[in-house]
Design brief:
The chain is of the alpha+beta class. It has helices at residues 12-25, 68-74, 83-86, 92-107, 172-184, and strands at residues 49-54, 61-66, 111-119, 123-134, 143-152, 166-169. It contains five helices and six strands, in the order H-E-E-H-H-H-E-E-E-E-H. A six-stranded antiparallel sheet has the order 2-1-5-4-3-6, with helices on both faces. The longest helix has 16 residues, at 92-107.
């Protein structure tokens, strides 16, 4: 799978979301919110999916939809909740997630995030997110379609610091090229 211009070229789940988003653009810079229908997506994406939207209060976001795999892995259902509901005001993590989601929503630019999270019971996991902006409907703000792919590591990670989070903005052109190459290589589910 090398040679694809995407940092998630080895992740079929993220590739399939990129292909879905690309197909729904219909030649526009961003797909309209009305074109996004979770029931229209490849079924294997749904458990990993989040739909995030701004609340209109500073950079606070609401998690409109959170897939079952994410609810299970993070042991909480954030559906309908805001970043303010989930994290205290002085939380560095709250600030971080509000900033990355707001960046995608305001700029209209896809973002790939790769980080490691440590959980007391499961150990460390590699968590990769693909954040894709969605165009606003009349009278509303943009939103972000987010897919998270989680790889749980095995073995002990005691005494090891997780690597820092890595973010990479992805141009629409690079995303399109990567989707085309993945299609030609037969790496995508049918949409």
């Amino acid at each position: 799978m090398s040679g694809l211009p995407l940092p998630f070229a080895d992740d079929r789940i993220l590739l399939n979301l990129a292909a879905y988003w690309s197909a729904k653009r219909g030649g526009h810079p961003l797909p309209p919110r009305s074109a996004i229908d979770p029931l229209d997506m490849p079924r294997r994406l749904l458990p990993h999916l989040m739909l995030v939207e701004p609340t209109g209060r500073d950079i606070e976001v609401r998690f409109r939809l959170v897939g079952t795999e994410l609810v299970q892995r993070f042991r909480r259902d954030a559906t309908g909740k805001t970043s303010r509901d989930l994290y205290p005001p002085d939380s560095d993590y709250r600030s971080y997630i509000e900033q990355i989601y707001s960046s995608v929503i305001q700029r209209g630019q896809p973002l790939y995030v790769d980080n490691t999270r440590r959980f007391p019971e499961e150990g460390s996991s590699r968590v990769r997110h693909l954040l894709l902006p969605i165009a606003a409907e009349a009278g509303s703000a943009r939103a972000a379609l987010v897919l998270s792919s989680i790889s749980w590591s095995t073995g002990s990670d005691e005494g090891h610091q997780p690597p820092p989070s890595r973010e990479r903005q992805i141009s629409v052109e690079a995303l399109e090229k990567g989707v085309l190459q993945a299609t030609l290589r037969g790496l995508l589910d049918s949409i």
